[in-house]
Amino acid sequence: MDARKKYSDRRCSEREGSPRRSNWRLNRSFDISILDHRGRTVNVSASGVYFEVTTDDMEVFSVGTTTPLQIKTDIHLYEGMDEKYLISGSGEIIRNCMIENPAHVNSLGVALEFTEKLDTKLDND
Predict the structure, then answer these.
(1) Cβ–Cβ < 8 Å for 71, 87
(2) Domain containing residue 25: CATH number
(3) Rg of the chain over all Cα atoms, to the nearest angstrom
């Protein structure tokens, strides 16, 4: 199958603000670990996360794949007080698209819907 048909070459930003959205999005960049890959979130909501990851193995992020994930957050509470949280759970990949970056390696944009309640704990590392 042609890679352009399997992985859309659009930037995925055309869905921003779509009325289909059922949950408010937090547009923040956090570290995410998924399927032995590291990436950065673009936005997070109560129902899912959209992130970008650099990978040579795009098959790993195929639509329909259910996988564990871990998000590290750094929240600024007030002056001089920050807290780090580790959010973990699992989700199903519902969409992916190729992101072409002329200046460096191409990456993949991945939308993942949470399939279970997430576990949140303080990250003391």
Answers:
(1) yes
(2) 2.40.10
(3) 15
Assess contact for 47 and 22: CB atoms under 8 A.
yes
12: alpha, beta or left? (left if phi > 0; alpha if psi -120 to 50) = left
Per-residue burial over 70-80, b = 16 or more CB atoms within 10 Å of its CB, e = otherwise: ebbbeeeeeee
Amino acid at 72: K
Distance CA 94, CA 59 (A): 13
Number of domains in the chain: 1
CA dist., res. 69 & res. 87, Å (int): 8
Q: Read off the pTM.
A: 0.76
Range of the domain at 19: 3-122
Residues in the chain: 125
pLDDT tens for each residue of 54-113: 887 888 999 999 999 999 998 877 777 888 999 999 999 999 998 887 777 778 999 999
Place of tokens 């819907």: 113
